[in-house]
Amino acid sequence: MRVKQKISFFYILLSLFVITNCQRAQVSKKPNVLLICVDDLRPELKSFGADYISSPNIDAFSEKSIRFQKHFVNSPSCGPSRYTLLTGQYGPAGNNALFSRANKINQGTQKIDKSIPEWFKIYGYKTVSVGKVSHHPGGRGGKNWNDSTKVEMPNAWDKHLMPVAEWEHPRGMMHGLANGEIRVKSSGMDVFQTIEGDDNIYPDGAITDETVKQIGELSSNKENPFFLAVGIIKPHLPFGAPKMYYDRYDGVELPKIKHPQKPKGKTTWHGSGEFMKYNRWGKNPNTDADFANDVRRHYAASVSYADAQVGKILAALKKTGADKNTIVVLWGDHGWHLGEHAIWGKHSLFEESLHSPLIIHYPGMKHKGTNTNAIVETVDIFPTLCDLAEIETPEYAHGTSLKELLVDPNATGHYAISYNNKASTIRTSTHRMTLHKDGFVELYDHSTTEKETKNIAEVHPELVKELKAKLSTRLKLK
After folding, report:
1. 436 DSSP β-pair partners
2. Rounded distance, CA 141 to CA 147, Å?
């Protein structure tokens, strides 16, 4: 009897040991990361104050998160903005920024700092990208962006996926319209389109389906946390979405375009070349109010379509149960002018090009559904993810962790810098200063109604001097 009791006691202890260690393993497992990148997304969402926009899924997610109302990207174009996101560093201003970095890695003649996915790999993460995360959807180069010998981010992803469906190749997906239509030349493709059908008649449907599949596979791995990045293409040009999303705006009155005039004097204004190259049926939104209204409604429909994809992705995460241990970041890669300053597109250094949504949720957060008006910038995301995942932040990261703001949304932010090939700019809580390469300065006061329509640089030389010094200090990190 005593022998049996001893054996029973032994098995009880063994069971307790196994249970305790399993619990420890579950507790000690690092949180997953889900990074959702949305192309050309203005902070024109209901959760960011745009009541006329239908964005129910992002809005519902934001109620579980903190909304950064004053997040600014570091460059107003897809390639250099994604460079700053994925490397945590300021970098080149061209769309080939990541490929230039890849060439240096492949040459092996200099040390190149690790990207976010590379860094997280060190800590045991499985890294997967789907869709447009780096500049080229799927992260490859070549004529049709599907050459596996030309990788945009070497050593970064365990898998970098780009389902192409009937669009043939990643290049076709990037500027695709309904049912497999591929852009051959911009002038031969309509600038906007509305077609009856489900989500999969446009490219993002396939991207979302693959993302849902990857969430299922990654969440079933009980040993390794995952870093999953997904890039949704819309609302990038051309503005195409299933008709059911366009119909949401039937009878909806859009607000007037703010400061629609072309600015006087020297600025970073441009002629909206990317937009104007498309077939516009001979119309110009700067002179045709009805056409401008159509463009804005199709942009809004594309936002609602992108919002639906976000909803499917977050629903899949929740279905697996992995949402309870996943940091989720939704990021717009830059803003987009819809007629402000008579610009239709990005690429300027005005507020509309640089202001984009940033929403962050993490397990155990307290201030859910909260806004913060602190100034932050895209390079802050890398150190923030490290902080939330409780892994070391690399010394080479140029940004500042936003953990303090996530804990206390009323905490103070900092300032944000941005640049293109012709100028650089600094945004504080009250002003924006833009410095052209020839020395010309624009200074705008955001505490006034004029905002970025009245250059006050000449009457505030001391402020210009102060902001130049700050801007110079940050640009030296490039």
Report:
1. 423
2. 5
CA atoms within 13 Å, Cβ hemisphere of 331:
31
Whether residue 5 has pLDDT greater than 80:
no
Q: pLDDT of 181-234, one tens digit each? A: 999 999 999 999 999 999 999 999 999 999 999 999 999 999 999 999 999 999
Among 37, 71, 135, 175, which one carries the catalytic annotation? 135
Residue 59 pLDDT more than 60?
yes
Instruction: For residues 278 and 269, give the distance between their C-alpha atoms in angstroms, rounded to a whole number.
Output: 19
Q: Helix, strand or coil for residue 182?
A: coil
Measured CA to CA in angstroms, residue 197 lies from 194, 228, 240, 243, 246 at distances of: 9, 29, 12, 7, 12
HSE-up of 11 (CA within 13 Å, CB side)? 5
Cis peptide before 235 (omega within 30 of 0): yes
Whether 78 is catalytic is yes
What is residue 213's three-state secondary structure? helix
Q: Please state the pTM of the whole predicted model.
A: 0.94
Provide the 8-state DSSP code for 376.
E
Q: What is the pLDDT of residues 230-287, one digit of tens each?
A: 999 999 999 999 999 999 999 999 999 999 999 999 999 999 999 999 999 999 999 9
* pLDDT, position 29: 83
175 an active-site residue?
no
DSSP codes of every residue in 409-469: TTS----EEEE-SSEEEEE-SSEEEEEETTS-EEEEETTSSSBTTS--GGG-HHHHHHHHH
Q: Find tokens 């959807």 and name the residue.
A: 137
* 101, 201 Cβ separation under 8 angstroms: no
Tell me if residue 371 falls in helix, strand or coil. strand
Distance CA 353, CA 422 (A): 15
DSSP, collapsed to helix, strand or coil, labels residue 6 as helix
**Active-site residue identified among 37, 78, 337, 386:** 78
Q: What is the 3-state secondary structure (H, E, C) of 54-98?
A: CCHHHHHHHCCCEEECCEECCCCCHHHHHHHHHHCCCCCCCCCHH
Burial status of residue 248 (CB atoms within 10 A of its CB: 0-12, 13-18, 19 or more):
middle
Tokens 């469906």 belong to which residue? 165
Of the candidates 18, 230, 254, 13, the residue with the CA atom closest to the CA atom of residue 128 = 230
